[in-house]
Amino acid sequence: MEQLRLTAELASDLVYQTNPAGIIEWVSPSVIHVLGWNPAEITGSPSIDLVHPEDAPGVQAVGARSYAGETVEEHVIRLRTKQGEYRWMSVRFRPVTDDRGTISAMAVGARDVHEATIAGKAAQALAQADSALLRATGEGGLLQRVCDILVENGRYRAAWYGRPVNDAAKSVVQVARAGNHRGYLDQVRVTWGDAATAMGPTGNTIRTGKIQDCRDLQNDPKTGPWHAAAIAAGFGSSLALPVFVDGQIDGVLNVYGAEAGEFDHEAQTTLAGLADDIGQGLARLRDRAKIADALVNGVDLLAATVKTRDTYAASHQSDVSTLAMRLGQVLGLDDNQLLGLKLGANIRDLGNIVIAPEILSKPGRLTPEEFDQVRSHAEAGWQIAKRFHWPWPIAEMIHQHHERFDGSGYPQGLRGEQIVREARIIAVADVYDAISHDRPHRRSPGEARALEILTAAKGTEFEPDVVDALQQVLATGYTSGTVLKP
Q1: At a CB cut-off of 8 Å and minimum separation 6, what does 256 contact?
Q2: Percentages helix, strand, coil for the chain, rounded to the nearest 5?
Q3: Which residue ranges form the domains of the chain, and what is each CATH number?
Q4: pLDDT beneath 70, residues of the chain
Q5: Whole-number pLDDT of residue 9
Q6: Chain centroid, CA 32 distance in Å
Q7: This model's pTM is above 0.85
């Protein structure tokens, strides 16, 4: 009667009772339908033997809290079936007391949530990955972030993105990966031709353009070359998803589960949606790269125009651009931001084309009127640059690179974060390079003195983090004229 009452109260697919030592004393007959066991087969055995090894420590901790009289929340864990597979179950612990009110046993109600959990893992990964796709600025970063999300948020064992190569071996190159359990991803050699290493899920997906669901990675004959590594890594199943860009297969997204048969129809559908999103994201990035190439060519033409009017600008322009990029790297700018910074720094003095060449190259001190003309280049350059639709704040970099962190700059007197970050970086690179090189109207006091001047103005005229980055760059042996690509 007590067992029937517990089954009703816990309202679960499966109920079992353990003594304080964790030995199963009784289990509901439904266990045969849920996990495949006959009740007699597991009665008298340790309940922890049914729990997935990765979940066991958490279950033991929750059980101890329950025996201490604490009310514990529902937990989702994996229980072993008679076939050796694991199913996701949501379990609740209910203390059983004797006539004296002492806890003498523990009733555990387990509700089957396997399909919902697997689908939820895929859906959670998709939601996180879609967010990464929207923020992506480069292919490598995008693919790596997707792999990280599948492992960290989707709780899959591993994920990697492979691209086919048209070499003699028909190789597949790992472009991004996460979850390298026991060096599995280091050991696996995959091809897409007709060798044994091409007969697995990845090779078949590349050849057919279709999803390949390997339900038993450790025993499927097609995955023979990888059985030992899969067993060592604890991989039970895998899913290979084709990623298409502009109608052509770009690569394969491989996802690994701990259990055999982990990827049901709903999970496959969700992850296939992720693969489609990746393809669209890659296409968008490549379109953006084409636009960027065109803009780079346009910027080079503008920069060349500036150089023809100012002989000093020829070397100063490229040196400042290179130094600004070095500073940007130290400050953690991504590849797309670095490209924008490079272009903005390269044409920061675009407005000089409206200033008389004799003023720009005047060997002596400028008159107040001439100095005002030179200062007008920031406004003039902005007026030109703002006509273009840049994917970076190029016009703002041009307009603001003479602003100062404390508001003492020109032309608008902006301060702090009112100034775009790229302009704050360019300001430091520009001033350092200008002081450390001879100008038409004065001799340089040297690089050491240039650094002293900027350090003294740290936190006033110049952003502290950028000056710190300058000190770091110079400490690594930076010299003007170094060629650097984003």
Answers
A1: 156, 157, 158, 159, 179, 217, 233, 235, 237, 238
A2: 50, 15, 30
A3: 2-112 (3.30.450.20), 117-285 (3.30.450.40), 310-475 (1.10.3210.10)
A4: 1-12, 115-137, 154, 288-316, 438-442, 479-486
A5: 44
A6: 43
A7: no
